[in-house]
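Example with several molecule types.
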Amino acid sequence: MTETLASGQLLFAALATGASYALVALGLNLVYATMRLLNVAHGDIVMLGGYAAYWCVSLAGIPPLASLAGIALVGALLGMGAYRGLFRRMLARSRAAARLESNSLLLFFGLSIIVQNAAALAFTATPRGYQTLTEVLHFGDVALTGNRLAALLVAAALLAAIVAFLKLHVFGLAMRGLIDHREAAAVVGVDVDRVQLACFALGFGSAAVAGALLSMTEQVSPFMGFPFTVAAFVVVILGGLGSIGGGIAGAFVLGALETYGVALTSASYRSILLYGMFVLVLVTRPHGLFGRRSIVR
Amino acid sequence: MTTRRKFVRGIAASALAIASAQWTAAAPAANPVRIGFSIAKTGIFAAAAPSQLNAYELWREQVNARGGLEIGKDRRQVEFVMYDDQSNPSQAAKIYEKLVSQDKVDLLLAPWGTPTHIAVAPVLERYRFPMVGNTAASVKLRELKPGNIWFTTAAIPDRIGKELAAMLVANDVKSVALLTNVLPFGKEIKTFLEPALKKARIEIRVNEEYPPDIKDMTALLSKVKQAKPDGVIALSYPGDSPIYVRQAKELGIGAKFQFVLIGPAIDFFPKLLGSAADDIVTVGEWSPARNARAKAFHDAYVARFKERPDYLDSALAYLSCEILEQAVKSAGLDRNKLREAISKGSFETINGPVRFKGVENVVTQTGFLQLQAGVPQLVWPAALATAKFRPKTSW
Amino acid sequence: MRSHRDLCVLLAVMALAALLPAAAGEYWVGIGISLAMWIALTQSWSVLSALSGYVSLGHVVFYGLGAYVVVASWNALPLAAALPLAALAAAAFAFLAGWPVLRVRGPYFVILSLGVAELVKFVVIAVEAGQGNASRLILDTPDLNTIYYLMLGLAALATLIAWGARITRLGHGLRAIREDEEAAETLGVPVARYKLTAFVVSAAVPGAVGGVMALRATYFEPLQVFDPMVSFSMIAMSIIGGSDDLRGPVVGAAALTLLSELLWANAPELYMMVLGVLLVAFVLFVPEGICGRLLAARPATR
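Resulting structure tokens for the full complex:
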């Protein structure tokens, strides 16, 4: 038993699952933490990214890794459009935070319905899939499927890049300011509108890329998004709102539970472990693993 | 302020315009036969329902091309009255109430999925309106009152359990790993498979269940690999079947008999998984090689939708239409006569003869398909097989 | 007082609605059941979330637990005992879960409530699987009209409870909590007790509602019954109706139900998209809800 637990195979699985959770959740963290918008359409952007990768492969023969940049760009543009067209007005009127939350929920809910049904109308609801990098590589006694390894590496690289950008670039500081205290950030000269626009762009863009990477290993269908939305919310809150690093850590905790938790107990407890741990962490640490107590609304 | 009001009015107006446009759409043919049903166009069943809807559409087009549905001596064009039940069985029940009491359709076709069929059955009972079901498979169906609903599938869990054990014995499988998704179809089959395996003295080396939203099976499959069973039986759904195949390939599970419950019969499966999906066995009782009608159906479906039909759902949906067609030909549209015709009659379909006893189809045999070079072949029962079972030797 | 008048009007309308089965066919009774269900659910949800600001995204957990109780006890208990038991079970769960869960604030509470709902769903799935079940079928359920009256009664009860919560000290305390929880506590509001009371009170009727809907559906599958869309719809109806008003949930439920009925019957291909567009437009242009807009149109005299 201990032999299996220490195996590289389980480690790879935990890392791969964790990285995919982390990349999906990153975009949500950017939108939710900075603007308190409950983006329940997040999973649907992931779905669109998946379809984009699928169509690139089947119509133009472009492998998913090559089309990533384009898909990220399209996602970012969608995000900017959503911000300019719909949310800027909502955010400008600083209402009671609770109402903004519920109203944004409804707004994104409506968007989610539109996006899902437009996709179903355009693509039909039949699931789609394609094959890429399906050879299994062996390192010692660890077997790695090419597409899974590629997804892990790309996700890790992207996460590192975004985290570095947020830490080192002044934009990251501005974002941090927005998360901690909105009004104060505006007072000290942060261009709130620009930062919010960039958050939407980065948030939607990273979601689309996550979807493209996922499409390498899973089938895509118009209504697949909602479970990803739920997972993303769980990861973001588990990690602690406002902490991008916390979100990533939370994702890997979930990935570890999915593999090691199951290995220690049984596959039938998988979902109970995941949600149970989430609930337990939050009731003992009400601000998540790395959340800040000082968030003012 | 005024622009806002204008906008809201504009939206309301366009919504009403769409609504009224649908309402006043011109009827396509004089005195058509109106056939009503609901289908899951949105929601969790939406990815599975197209297999059924496509078969319905294909049937309608073919019937209309032939001149229309034969009702006694008349031929009338078929028109569908279709609504979206949003994968919500209660909504489906409401829709069928509307179809019968308000839209006053002539005939009914079935919705998608076991829970939806069950939800609709009381409505059919209340209005005494016969409907031939298709994509429903559960032993619970036998508890429904017979007389207004029938089920065409032979993939009922108790029969599957028995036949699968028999097939394992026939192929010299002495030990298995049993992995079950706790959703109804998988769980029900497990209830009957376990005792059948014990009776056949097949050792169950790993017996695990997992929740439907599982994302990674590495820990589970490591256990399976260590146990080295002759066969792996994954009672999985389309969401997790690909996870099993991918990760079994990754870990290199060498079992010669690999069974995946739902997935391999659907077109996307080999497209997603390629050679990894080869030689995988799944549930299915139809193949284009069954008879000439079957081949014609298969080819017409491929030509129309540019993909293979689902060997389970599409075939069942189409043959339920065939049964309706043949019943209407002899009994007309009168519901009592129709009920008699369906309960007592014998029908020629793309899957051979079909006859009902109570709610169940007692002629079609429970069978299994195996993907060979990306094409599903019927490998069980031996009498109907289109190809021989091949042990899985590689991924 | 305005809310007394509102209550009388609403109850009178519901009394009138009791005549529906005599006046119209089964299809309309079916719609009536849906409408009454949403009113009952949304009113109950608003007692917690609209008043205290603790937006619960997992309220379907009470609905699901109630359904489970009725289905599991179908052969053992008469309905007259099973339905109150369903409400009691939901309330008991709220009491037990409320202690730890209500310590969590703001956005954390929102997602935690979703997490609790999902956790309970998977626990029920596991418990059922352990007994060899994946779904349950109940037979010989009451007829449609009986179900309608039960649901109408629950809608009236939920409205009464929501009214009661609003006018008592509980309601004022909750509103104070919504504005500023620390300040409320300093002022002597028994914050923890009030939150827990609101939580328990908001859980009971949804439990009974779940039980009644189990009778309507006759088929119980945990994955389907514990559907997050139910939670989302409660929130949507509350916002559309206008959340800080007794009439809000009724208006919101009626608006959305009527809209859905109009759309799905007449625009089968596009109706979901139209619904989505209308929701978006509504939030952008009428964010205070229908009742809020009506209130604003009137001069602010009481």
